[in-house]
Design a protein that fits this description.
Number of helices of chain B: 17
Radius of gyration of chain B: 26 Å
CATH architecture of the largest domain in chain B: 3-Layer(aba) Sandwich
Strand content of chain A: under 5%
Structural class of chain B: alpha/beta
CATH class of the largest domain in chain B: Alpha Beta
Number of domains of chain A: 1
Mean pLDDT of chain A: 88
CATH superfamily of the largest domain in chain B: P-loop containing nucleotide triphosphate hydrolases
Order of helices and strands of chain A: HHHHHHEHEEHHHHEHHH
CATH topology of chain A: ABC transporter involved in vitamin B12 uptake, BtuC
Oligomer: heterodimer
């Protein structure tokens, strides 16, 4: 409301456009820049590659978005991806179905533990998930004795999940499309979705109005855990192995994609589809950095951190001025 | 319909204590169908305790509540809500990013198989809003509405529950004049539809504008329940404050008999046309060197707000503050302190003392910068200062190292006074300086304030004890709904005139003068 007085209607529109569609605008301008600089950039092959490479992150970021909308944060997603992948690879000899379900169920259970600790024990989400992340990473390392576990040939379905195609579309990309649509429907059409938004917005008011915040949080963290496990399973299929050191720092990327998509870090406001744009934006940035070839992966980390800080600072500003 | 005589809610002999301290001593409250019933009283009267018992937020210790034909004992607000007793509190609890309709239906959304029926929700919300005569889009986010409309949404939510008893707790405290009239329209509409309303407010105008009957509580007891048409404003104020206008009580405070001769001194504080949020009128005050000026008024009349605004702790919408002729820009308490002002809050525990620190540390807190060199506090200078003030104000403590929370209320107050006195203060802003202090210490504090004024300090004192103002102050400024309505001094400064000004306001404006 303050912004209306301050900038006029046009200014408010611009601000709203920047926050809601900022990621999309950035994505388009980056694509334009890339296509001028590299002939190979804007080819269907490269674009499909970017999408396929980032499918796993997109799945993780979806869970992260749900948790952030509910007013929390989940730092355990990276470790859960590794654990889910390792467990799937270890169960692969028993067949694809067992491997897939085993990988997903184990991290869904851990996500539920996150949710219980956050809602019932009233602990800070970042503390809880930081510790469960450490535990899950340790578990993945000790189960595999720090080695990569190759996926047995008995689990062709698992491999298909990571590498297969349906027509021209890679299976992981298809999974992402389905999940994002389902999540969008859940958030904007169902009771659960409304309650996730309400609790993230004002937990006390929601409680007073008859919403059960504990249950909402439990569901949100369980969804995030489950999706991390699924990402791990897909990753294991794609790599043909369960790696205990996989997905290091993915929590940062997932938070980044969510925030760049315009979801408010304080909870209660945002959506999932922009998160997907955020993921693609990140993927494109890394892709361009790789094509550039002059920036080492370590400097890429530094750039990533700095860029993300800028995004969060910008968002905070917008939220403050827009009231 | 026989609305006028059918009782909806009847509370009889309600008692409630908090850790042994009685808040309600056996209060009766009776609400009729389609009635707007004002519930008033000053601090500690027991209004909010009674409301919370009504809505199930507290449980009574004893007494009976009859609702409709049944005896009830609500365990929590949800139970009371289910049968139609709902409170809308001052701080409105809504979910800002969500729409009006979502807020009205949150927790019991129309749905099938977990999928929300948005059309039914929006039309349902629109229907309720129309019943209240409001033009609010059910699809707008609540956060984009102004406070008045948010309140309407909260009321609409209550109505959607089928509220038969709606409790409004200071509903107008943050509304503008036009918003108030919208609220009144809504309230009258609800009344005509048979809803009973309990209306808690301190603004006399509003009570007389919209309420049928009033129940006055004081110190947890019933004082009177009466139709407002048969109760004069003066009588209402007298009931609230527990004073009679013809009551003569002289020499009840330690101020009595002190010389009041500061009239010829120069002006210290000149505050003109102070306005803060949503109040229509404005406040003007002048304090001279060596003068004690009193601020009188009911709870919520703007006394504390004025003091806090002068101290830079609350933003002003308009007005100028001059200290010794110099125009001040008060953006924060820091500015006010630098200009030579000091403020003692009415809530010592929350805004004053730091309980776990010693008397010495509490006393020198504000003066530390002057006792410090290269970031090191000089203990010697600190001790000297502390000893001087402990003697001067006769602060009773085992030693300067005793923790302040172990001291009596009176001595805590003295330490807080000393905290400001060792800082070269020119103007003291005191908000209820003797509340919650036992009789003996009260006299000591009063004597101390008088002495400080005699030494040339200007004092602005808020007090709910009219005697304190009559006997202690050279002049008394009366506030009413955020407006200074009278300035009384000399012969005019008596109990009757103050009560009259609080009750009738501008009608009895006295000659304004030094």
């Amino acid at each position: 409301m303050a912004a209306t007085r301050f900038l006029g209607l046009a200014g408010t529109r611009l601000l709203r456009l920047l926050t809601s569609q900022g990621a999309l605008l950035l994505l388009l301008s980056l694509a334009l820049f890339g296509s001028f600089r590299y002939q190979t950039f804007l080819t269907p092959l490269n674009l499909m590659n970017i999408m396929r490479q980032n499918s796993m992150l997109a799945i993780v970021a979806l869970g992260m978005t749900v948790v952030i909308l509910s007013g929390g944060i989940d730092l355990s997603v990276g470790a859960f991806v590794a654990l889910g992948g390792v467990i799937a690879a270890m169960l692969a000899p028993a067949g694809s179905l067992v491997a897939i379900i085993g990988g997903i169920a184990s991290t869904a259970l851990l996500g539920m533990v996150n949710g219980l600790l956050v809602s019932r024990a009233l602990l800070q989400p970042f503390v809880v998930t930081l510790f469960t992340a450490s535990a899950a990473r340790g578990l993945a390392l000790s189960l595999t004795e720090e080695k990569s576990i190759a996926v047995s040939s008995a689990a062709s379905g698992l491999v298909w999940l990571g590498r297969g195609f349906i027509g021209p579309v890679p299976v992981p990309v298809l999974i992402v499309a389905l999940l994002y649509f389902a999540a969008w429907f859940m958030l904007h059409r169902s009771l659960l979705g409304l309650h996730i938004f309400a609790v993230g917005d004002n937990e006390e008011a929601s409680r007073l109005m008859g919403v059960n915040p504990d249950r909402v949080k439990l569901v949100a963290y369980t969804i995030s855990g489950l999706l991390s496990g699924l990402a791990g399973v897909v990753l294991a299929g794609r790599l043909g192995a369960g790696q205990p050191v996989a997905a290091f720092g993915w929590e940062t990327d997932a938070i980044a994609a969510t925030v760049m998509g315009g979801t408010f870090l304080g909870g209660g406001q945002g959506s999932v589809l922009p998160t997907l744009i955020g993921v693609l934006l990140l993927g494109m940035i890394y892709n361009l950095l790789n094509l550039e070839g002059t920036i080492t992966p370590w400097w890429q980390l530094v750039l990533r951190g700095g860029f993300l800080l800028l995004v969060v600072i910008f968002q905070q500003r917008v939220v403050k001025t827009a009231g | 319909m026989n609305q006028a005589t059918s009782t909806v809610l009847c509370m009889t002999d309600i008692k409630k204590s908090f850790s042994g301290v009685p808040a309600l001593w056996g209060v009766n409250f009776e609400l009729q169908a389609g009635e707007i019933h004002a519930l008033v009283g000053e601090n500690g009267a027991g209004k909010s305790t009674l409301i919370k018992i009504m809505t199930g937020a507290y449980r009574r210790d004893s007494g009976f509540i009859e609702y409709g034909q049944n005896s009830v004992a609500f365990q929590n607000p949800t139970e009371a809500q289910a049968v139609g007793i709902i409170a809308v509190y001052q701080e409105i609890q809504l979910v800002g990013f969500r729409t009006v309709a979502e807020n009205i239906f949150l927790g019991r959304e129309p749905h099938s198989f977990g999928i929300i029926d948005r059309r039914r929700m929006n039309t349902g919300a629109a229907e309720i809003l129309r019943r209240l005569g409001l033009h609010i889009n059910p699809r707008s986010p609540v956060g984009s509405l102004n406070i008045a409309h948010r309140q309407m949404v909260a009321i609409a939510r209550a109505i959607s529950f089928g509220a038969r008893v709606l409790i409004l707790d200071e509903p107008t405290s943050s509304l503008t004049q036009t918003e108030v009239s919208v609220l009144f329209d809504v309230i009258r509409r609800l009344k005509s539809q048979g809803t009973s309303i309990v209306y808690v407010s301190h603004r006399l105008e509003e009570l007389y504008a919209v309420c049928d009957r009033v129940t006055v509580l004081r110190d947890g007891r019933n004082i009177v329940t009466q139709p407002l048409t048969t109760l004069s404003r003066l009588d209402l104020v007298c009931h609230m404050l527990g004073r009679k206008p013809d009551q003569v009580s002289k020499g009840v405070t330690a101020f009595a008999g002190r010389p009041q001769n500061a009239v010829c001194r120069s002006v210290l504080l000149q505050a003109e046309a102070l306005k803060y949020q949503h109040c229509q009128g404005s406040v003007s005050i002048e304090v001279r060197h060596g003068e004690i000026v009193g601020l009188a008024g009911l709870l919520g009349s703007g006394r504390s707000e004025t003091a806090r605004a002068l101290f830079g702790a609350q933003p002003l919408d308009d007005g100028t503050v001059k200290l010794e002729g110099k125009l001040l820009e008060l953006r924060s308490p820091h500015d006010a302190i630098n200009a030579g002002m000091a403020f003692l809050s009415e809530d010592r525990k929350a805004d004053g003392i730091i309980p776990e620190l010693s008397v010495r540390e509490n006393l020198t807190l504000a003066a530390l910068p002057t006792l410090t060199q290269w970031g090191i506090v000089s203990r010697k200078r600190q001790d000297k200062l502390v000893n001087r003030f402990m003697q001067r104000l006769s602060i009773k403590a085992v030693s300067a190292e005793q923790k302040i929370h172990e001291l009596s209320g009176g001595n805590q107050q003295k330490v807080l006074l000393a905290r400001w006195l060792c800082k070269n203060t020119k103007l003291l802003l005191l908000d209820e300086p003797t509340r919650g202090i036992d009789i003996g210490a009260k006299g000591e504090i009063q004597r101390l304030i008088a002495e400080l004024a005699e030494q040339g300090l200007g004092v602005l004192m808020i007090s709910s004890e009219v005697e304190e103002l009559v006997e202690g102050c050279q002049r008394v400024v009366v506030l009413r709904d955020g407006q200074s309505v009278a300035q009384l001094s000399g012969e005019q400064k008596n109990l009757q005139a103050i009560l009259h000004a609080i009750a009738e306001g501008a009608d009895c404006q006295q000659a304004v003068g030094g």
